[in-house]
Structure formats: C-alpha cells, structure tokens
Amino acid sequence: MSKNVMVIGTGTIGEPLIGLLAEHKDALGLDNVVFFKRTPLSDEKGKVEALLRKGAKIVSTSDALSDFKKLGFTDIEDVENTYEDVDVIIDCTPSGNDNWENIYSSLDQSKRFMAQGSEHGFGPFFAWGINNDVLENDSNRYLIASCNTHNIASIVKTFALDQSRELVEGQFVCLRRANDVSQNDSFSPSPTITKHSNQEFGTHHARDVHELFAQEGKELNLFSSAIKLPTQYMHTLWFTLRFTDTIQHEEIMENLYSSEFLMATEKMSSNKVFSFGRDHGYHGRLLSHGIVAEQSLHVKDNVLTGYCFTPQDGNALLSSVAGTVQHYYKDNWTEKMKTFNRYIFKNI
Ligand SMILES: NC(=O)c1ccc[n+]([C@@H]2O[C@H](COP(=O)([O-])OP(=O)(O)OC[C@H]3O[C@@H](n4cnc5c(N)ncnc54)[C@H](OP(=O)(O)O)[C@@H]3O)[C@@H](O)[C@H]2O)c1
Predict the structure, then answer these.
(1) FRET pair for 81, CA 20 to 30 Å: which of 75, 118, 164, 244?
(2) What's the sign of the alpha-carbon dihedral 292, 190, 149, 276?
(3) Among the CATH numbers 3.30.1360.120, 3.40.50.150, 3.40.50.10860, 3.30.360.10, which is that of 147-313?
(4) 34 in helix, strand or coil?
(5) With bands split at pLDDT 50, 70 and 90, how would you rate the model's confidence at 161?
(6) Within a 10 A sphere around the Cβ of 167, how many other Cβ atoms?
(7) Contact present, 318 and 112 (Cβ < 8 Å)
(8) How far is the CA of 164 from the centre of ligand 1 (A)?
C-alpha cells in the first residue's frame, strides 16, 4: 500500500509543512507528498516551484488547471483524481470545518483528517508529546493544537502533571505577535486587547488546553488573557502556576532541563530567539513546543512565574507530521519522529 499524504493550503502553515514532509519523506517512510493549491497566483510561482523542488506534487481543482499550466506548472493533477489515492489529509486553511462538511465527510472514512487549531470542533485535540495516546482512539479526525495551546500545555505538563504536583490554578497571558512575517494583513499599530469572551476560561487559549487534558480525564483550573503587540516576531507567554505544596527553584530548573519538549534560553527578547530559529530551525522555525526564558523563572512559596516564547507555528507543524506518521507506523512512529531531533535544541 502506498503511503500518500495531501496538504490542503500553502499559506503560513501549509508551506513549511509541505516542505517538512517532502524533504523528510524517505526517513518518515512516506511515498508521496501532494499539496492542494487553490488559487493560481503569479506572485506565488516561486513558492510552488520551491515546493516542487523539495519533492512534493501539486494538485488543484479542474477549473484552475489551465491557469496553473500557463504559469508553467504542467505536471499538475486534478484534485478529484487524487482524493482516492491519499490516506492522510492535513487541512491548513482557515476553512477546515467547512471543508469537512463540503468535501472530506463524503470521502472514504478510513483516511485520517487533520485541521489546524482555529477549527474548533473538528476532532479531538492532538499535540505531539503531550497526548500521543489520543491517536489510538477510534477517531479519524484530529484538531492539531494551535501554537499557544502547545506552549501552555507543555508548561502545565512539564511543571505540574509530569511531577505529580497538584495544580491549584494556572494563569496565562498570551502576548501575541500581530501577524506572521509572511503576512500583510492584521498588523496592529498598538497593543490591542482580546476580549475575555469565555466566562470560565477568559480566552480560547486556556479553554483549548483545558479541553485537551479533559480528553484524558484531567480537569484543570486554567485562565488566559491575550493581547496583540505591534511585532511580527513570535508570541511570548507569561504564566503563573499555583501549586498546593511549596516548590523549590532548583527542582523547577531540573524539570525544565529534563523536558523533551521545552527548551531553555538566556535570551530575553523574541527577536533574538526568532533570529536563532531563522538561522538554525526548519523553514526558519524552531520545532520545540516552547522556549523558556530561564532567567524569568521565579519561585515564591508555592507559586511559579515565568515567560516562555512560542516558536511561531513550529510546534503545530511537528504535531501535524506526527499525526501523519502515526497513521502508517503504529509501532515505530516515535522512532521515525527522531528524524527531527536535529532541529531540537536544549538551550539556545
Ligand atoms: N499562522 C499561524 O501561526 C497559525 C498557527 C496555528 C494555527 N493556524 C491556523 O492554521 C490555519 C491556516 O493558517 P495560515 O496562517 O497558514 O493561513 P494563510 O497563510 O492565510 O493561508 C491559507 C491557505 O489556505 C488556502 N485556502 C484558504 N481557503 C481555502 C479553501 N476553502 N480551500 C482550499 N484552500 C484554501 C489558501 O490558498 P490560496 O492562496 O491558494 O487560495 C492559502 O494557501 C488557520 O486555521 C489558522 O488559524 C495558524
């Protein structure tokens, strides 16, 4: 049986994900990486060309094929002929739930479908290394946790759950970059507050992490706020965790250094961390779940406070790959994921 994966969308998430899958397809044991590009745009010709060079194949809808051919992409297939051949579909559009209704729900349901964090309700949350077991349930649809959900979940897992420390409450402020360096829209000229539209959790960030852990029966007391800042670099997370028992600073540092998914840094600004990712990450992304500013960690009695940078969308990308590899290699998928260890650092 061929192992063929299709990525829908070539935007901020889709573009690096296609590259990540295509360039590592031999190590991951995949045969073909196909991407669906909806709109033939001459200003995106270079992007498509680069993805083809990485070994991916392009498909589109029948009405767009001739325009893609005019742009020089003669080796393009009709997506309708491709659905049958792929076993994993990763939606990287802001329309994952609509695409489910209109397209995916009528395809063969032995396929695995994944959508990105904003498509709440698409399926159970999955974050690589946080709740791997969820991939073993009966669902054929998963919602890849968003970048900030990965970060918050990692903080909670590393400093509370993995240490069996009883968490009384966790509070988080997502200091969000206005838009990605790849985007023109939605820049913010000044700090702009997100409404606390969720009575219980504040913003959707704490709600999503609560739901993720509730899937395995853990009900956590979490609250989040968010504010958009006039920067294009990366999100930064402020967090405070209050435990039942007193904690020690040395223990917290040990927990950080032994975490598989958090890295530590002495850098105190997001541009310095971003710049390291640009030079040494994949497609400019760090692939850890979060980068803790170790000098920000503060312990007083039973309270831990600190800051953690969110590595753009690198964590969601790796979870999308993990959800793909696990579909094919139930027994040794975590071994195959070690391919990416070269992009993971302990301290930057
Ligand atoms: N950016 C982030 O940091 C980030 C992080 C975590 C999660 N997410 C989530 O990931 C999803 C994608 O975000 P993004 O930032 O990558 O978006 P984006 O940069 O705006 O790209 C969207 C892509 O989706 C395609 N597209 C849009 N609607 C489509 C449809 N109905 N059918 C097929 N293709 C469609 C567009 O294709 P054409 O241009 O060819 O039309 C474009 O390639 C969103 O749900 C977002 O909330 C984003």
Answers:
(1) 118
(2) negative
(3) 3.30.360.10
(4) strand
(5) very high
(6) 18
(7) no
(8) 38
Q: Give the integer Cα–Cα distance in Å for 25 and 21.
A: 6
**Domain residue extents for the chain:** 4-145+315-343, 147-313
Q: What is the pLDDT, as a whole number, of residue 125?
A: 98
Task: Indicate which residue's Cα is closest to atom 36 of ligand 1.
Answer: 9
* 9 CA → ligand 1 middle, Å: 6
294 vs 298: CA distance, rounded Å: 9
This model's pTM is above 0.90: yes
Tell me if 212 sits within 8 A of 130, measured CB to CB.
yes
Whether CATH 2.60.40.10 fits 4-145+315-343: no
Q: Which ligand 1 atom sits nearest the alpha carbon of residue 39?
A: 40
57-71, 90-104, 183-197: least confidently modelled range:
183-197
